Amino acid sequence: MSVFISIIVFLVVLGVLVVVHEFGHYIVAKKSGIRVDEFGFGFPPRIKTLFVYKGTRFTWNLIPFGGFVKIFGENSIQKSDPNFKQSFVAKRKLTQIAVLFAGPLFNFLFAWILLSSLFVFGSPAMLTSENKDVLANPQVSVIEIIPNSPASQSGFLIGDVIRSVVFDGVEFSVSEPDSLSQIFMDTGTQEVVVVVERGKGGVLEKNVVPEYGLFDGQSSPALGFSVAQVGTLQLPIHKALMQGGLRTWEITKSTFIFIYSLIENIFTSEKENLGSVTGPIGIVPIVGDALKIGFSFIVVLTALISVNLAVINLLPFPALDGGRILFVIIEKIIGQPIGVKTTQIVNGVGFLILLILMFVITIRDIVNLL
Fold it and tell me: Is 186 helix (H, G, I), strand (E, B) or coil?
């Protein structure tokens, strides 16, 4: 049942993000005087028309993965068409770029709104010298887990609050991160019981054996997680917007750096090229973990996926918004439109490559789950 709920939540999140993306294209196109024939929720075949608003048909479609907008004259149209002035290609190149860029832009804005709302209502944050006076209820919490470590194999999750460690019948309270190192130095590599508090899951006990060599330069054994003092940070709306914008920028920068490194590794024949890329199947367990931790982590995960969706769509690759923006720029440079057949072939090949890539990643995610 939990896997089923995780899948449903993931599909809802993905659907919302794609609709937000397409709404960006839609609203900028309409404001630019471009006719939008259809705004579809899900992908065809069409189930029914929900309503028609200012010439745009809003439809409900069978395949429930996001949505689409059908912009008039987006691919090709004759100048002799009586409605040519309302078409996408009839507008200035700068307007065309604005329409194409609006989808990713709305994903960035949506992530900003989500992250800012967390700070308005209260968001988990690590204790720092700057926020020590405003951070409420700081507790020793897991912030990172090393794959295949004792902590990972024992089912620890990011966000777990470490309450105590029981060894040889004696319970050691954990009040600060440094106290864990001292405890494991005393226990060595003998089994301990770690008492954790996890969101709605209540108090859990984890039997685990510390190991040496999990962290570089660490003389004591460890379980394979990093901890920090984490509390609830609540800010006034103007500061929340600033903090949300800063977090959105940090996620965006990290995503661009990751994609650049990924592309660089592909061309330099590095082994770890697609190994760290996760597709929809691989994200489902992450959604499940976020559900166990709490609602705020679902919001953060949604913002993270929204930024990733925006960044990927801005890549100058055929069939993506970035590739189409590149085509518009080339048309501006050469002073004439690129041929319809050329555009269709290039976008078709690009779309095929994306499908193959998604298929490979999906197969790998399924194998990793088995």
Answer: helix
> d(Cα 1, Cα 293) in Å, to the nearest integer?
17
Q: Which two tokens stand for residue 146?
A: 């090393």
Secondary structure element (H or E) that encloses residue 265, with its range: helix 237-267
| Cis peptide bond prior to 337, omega within 30° of 0 | no
What are the residue ranges in the chain where pLDDT is below 70? Answer: 1-2, 65, 200-201, 217, 266-294, 361-362, 364-370
Dump strand ranges (E) for 149-273. Answer: 161-167, 170-173, 192-198, 202-208, 225-233
Contact by Cβ (8 Å): 182, 265: no
Topology at the third CATH level for domain 135-233? Pdz3 Domain (2.30.42)
Separation of alpha carbons 263 and 240, rounded Å: 35
* Model pTM above 0.70: yes
What are the pLDDT digits (tens) for 8-43? 888 888 889 989 999 999 999 999 999 999 999 988
DSSP H stretches of helix in the chain: 2-31, 93-121, 150-153, 177-187, 237-267, 280-293, 295-313, 321-334, 340-369
